[in-house]
Specification:
Number of helices: 6
Helix content: 40-55%
Radius of gyration: 16 Å
Order of helices and strands: HEHEHEHEHEH
CATH class: Alpha Beta
CATH architecture: Alpha-Beta Barrel
Structural class: alpha/beta
Strand order of the largest sheet: 1-2-3-4-5
Amino acid sequence: MLRKAYKQQVEALIDGGVDVLLVETIFDTLNAKAALFAIEEVKEERDLNIPIMIYGTITDASGRTLSGQTVEAFLTSISHIELLSVGFNCALGAQQLHPYLKRLAHETAFYTSAHPNAGLPNAFGEYDESPKEMEGYIEAYLKDNLINIIGGCCGTSPEHIKAIAEVARKYKPRLIKVLE
């Protein structure tokens, strides 16, 4: 049933003219695999090649998804599909996401991406990290050659995105190394 629901969504998105398919906020790779299977099925049926981006979600300082997968296990479970990029979004702020992006970037030959939150939510569920603070954390990703694609998730505003874009202009994208 889940695969069928994803297939309907994929078909509707393609019929609507999307340029890329994004499977995001993955906390359970069994769901992601159902989405990826549906995408591959539609691609084969329609004889088309559309880029796929996938984002896992590391839920806390354990460095695991909600279903318990490590960065490496998440990557292994989705790497059988040709992907434009693999990355992380949501749940953590840019500072907290850094070590997991580092592990990801060193384990994959795919482009890497990140869409962190503007920090962690406060007691009211709001995000207090300023655009300048987030820019500094993103700059650390760029200095460490960890990302090719960058954006924001919960709590990010147009000002956050502007600050991210300004700092990203100063750096070249991550060089992809061939893994042995």
